[in-house]
Structures are given as C-alpha cells and as structure tokens.
Design brief:
Strand content: 25-35%
CATH architecture: 3-Layer(aba) Sandwich
Order of helices and strands: EHEEHEHHEHHEHHEHEEEE
Shape: globular
Number of helices: 9
Structural class: alpha/beta
Length: 232
C-alpha cells in the first residue's frame, strides 16, 4: 500500500495541504468543540481514502447507517458501492447496542471486536462521546492508547475525533501528546461570517508539505471546499 493512505480527490486540494495523506502506522487526533466540523472533515477523509483504494472502518456514536449515507450523498460523496463491497464498514454504536444500555462497557466491547480493525484506516467519531464514562484518569487512557499503538504497529492508521468538553480532567492528555498527527478545528466569527479552519499542531512521519492552517467550508452537493485565501 506504500507509506501513505492517500486522500486525493479532484474537487479539492486537502490532499496536498495535508501532507498528501495520513502516514501508515500512525494515530491521528482531531480535536474540536461541537459544531466545529469534525464529522464533516472525517466524512471528506473517508471518501478520499476509499477513492484511493484504501479500506475504512468508521465507528460512529451519533449516526445510523441511513443518516451516514444520507449525509455523504448530501455532500456528493457517494459511498454505497463501497459499503456493499465491504471496503467501507460503518458501525453505528448507539443504535446497534441500544441507547438505553450502559455506556461504561463500550470501550471494552470496542477493543474486543477484532473484525472492526481489519481495515487500513479505523475512524472513531466521536471517541470522547463513546468513552466519556470509561476514561477515568490518565492510566486508563494510556491503556487505550496502547491498544491504538498496536494497531498502528500493524500499519493501520487510527483516526479519532474528540470534543475536549466531553471528558473530564487529564484523560485526553496522553492522546494529545502521543498522537503522530494532531489537528485542532478552530471556529471564528468575522463580520457575521463563520470561519472554520484546521490547525495542524503536529504532523509526524511525512516527507511532504503540510500547511499549518487550512481554512474550509462545507457546502451541500459539493462537500468540502478549501478556502484558498486561508491556506499558508
């Protein structure tokens, strides 16, 4: 597969601005508050990985399969054929396990489901929502991070999105310090307009150019649009 899981599609240059893809054998942390665009960025990544012949598992804490497919098609990211072929595994955690079921055991169930981790890229959106009752302190976080590192050691790329407001204390500190790629989504308001950017805090193991700040917007029937004036 080479050293990079590529993101390239014809419609935008996220691929070029973000190191031409995610290096294999890495952990990527995408951090942002609710409404910052985490899911939209991940949906663009999923479509990019699949378009470049990489397999993907996406574990979602918010969307059903129908919701996910609807959102992807709304952004003109058609993925039904990849779901049918098994190249994309979409796992809706809460609908699958029942919203009334205790969430305390989700983390253990996740790590014991080996079939979820056979893909090239494993994405968990939103990881903090999945484990906010399981990450009690830094030690437990280190154990989970160790599990992700084992996957990375098998040349997988693990991508997790987090909302810092969902996890108490220093539970996310090990992920922030040890992730190979660390992206923070920033939302600002200028003159009544909402601006969103990907701030690259860390991007290890790449030989290619990475822009420190990537402005973007999301448009229906178009998907992600890179704001050229914001690219450094």
């Amino acid at each position: 597969m080479g050293d990079i899981y590529k993101l390239q599609i014809a419609r935008d240059d996220l691929h070029d601005q973000l190191g031409q893809g995610l290096p294999t054998g890495t952990i990527t942390l995408i951090e942002g508050a609710k409404g910052s665009g985490k899911s939209a960025v991940l949906q663009r990544m999923i479509f990019g990985f699949l378009s470049n012949c990489h397999t993907v598992t996406c574990i979602s804490t918010e969307l059903t399969v129908k919701d996910f497919i609807d959102q992807m098609y709304c952004l003109d990211y058609p993925i039904a054929s990849w779901i049918l072929s098994g190249k994309l595994k979409f796992v809706p955690v809460y609908p699958l396990m029942g919203s009334s079921r205790s969430r305390k055991d989700f983390l253990g169930m996740l790590m014991s489901s080996r079939e979820l981790f056979t893909s090239d890229v494993i994405i968990i959106d939103t990881f903090s929502s999945l484990v906010n009752n399981s990450l009690h302190g830094e030690e437990n976080s280190i154990n989970v991070l160790g599990f992700f590192k084992k996957l990375a050691g098998m040349n997988k790329s693990v991508v997790i999105s987090v909302d810092p407001g969902e996890v108490e204390g220093e539970a996310l500190s090990p992920f922030e310090s040890d992730s190979h790629v660390y992206l923070s989504l920033v939302v600002s308001q200028v003159g009544g307009m909402i601006s969103r950017s990907i701030m690259v805090k860390r991007f290890a193991n790449t030989q290619f150019r990475v822009s420190p700040m990537i402005g973007f917007r999301i448009e229906p029937n178009v998907g992600m649009v890179i704001e050229i004036t914001s690219v450094v």
